[in-house]
Amino acid sequence: MANFSQQRAALVKQLISEGIIRSDKVKNALMRVPREDFVPSNYREWAYVDSPLPIGHGQTISAPHMVALMTELLDPEPGDIVLEVGTGSGYQAAVLAEIVAKNSSLKRGHVYTVERIPELAEFAKENLRRTNYIDYVTVVVGDGTKGYLGAAPYDKIIVTAAAPSIPQPLIEQLKPSGRMIIPVGDLYYQRLLVVSKRTDGLLDVREDTWCVFVPLIGEYGWRSQY
Ligand code: SAM
Question: So what CATH class is 65-211?
Fold first, then answer.
């Protein structure tokens, strides 16, 4: 029988030694969220291999190092209102909720997450319910390239699917001084962009690592997968 807590601790230690986890808040969040409860049951024993895993409908839960890196770059703070585009399994949303809402004694933040495939939104909700994150995360079914006006503007926006360019609605729904992390490129490789919105509304964009994500499909993304 797998000892998931030990495997989780070993993976977090590895990500720290690789310089990917740099802050206590990301370390603590990855230590607390049980990734084995966000993968399909037949993949549970691989939950702590540092790799993406299939979650059905041609989609994946991102590799732990990518979740850790994107969370470090996003720099969520307790009290932040965060938008995630691409709910998938709900794991990244739970990691963010752990930092902005669940473990915060300050003003409580919240994570809004949008998923275009209704069955995956249900899968994520069930995972978030089972792990007690559901009170801190709102899962919305829809085209996340249009953002989610219901709770805009956001302190932070994270996009976990590959975009051809930064969707204009997401720029509009980001607060001044807000930050967005988004993979932008073609359908095969992308560059992780760190986008900071200045108080005058202009954007500072910094390119971080190369990465490979499934496509962001929607009105301001790719029109289809192929
Ligand atoms: N963050 C997820 C997790 O923690 O499991 C992994 C996300 S997976 C790599 C990308 C997800 O983006 C898929 O579930 C896909 O259906 C979703 N997606 C693609 N285009 C979308 C869109 N326009 N709006 C919302 N979700 C979208």
Answer: alpha beta
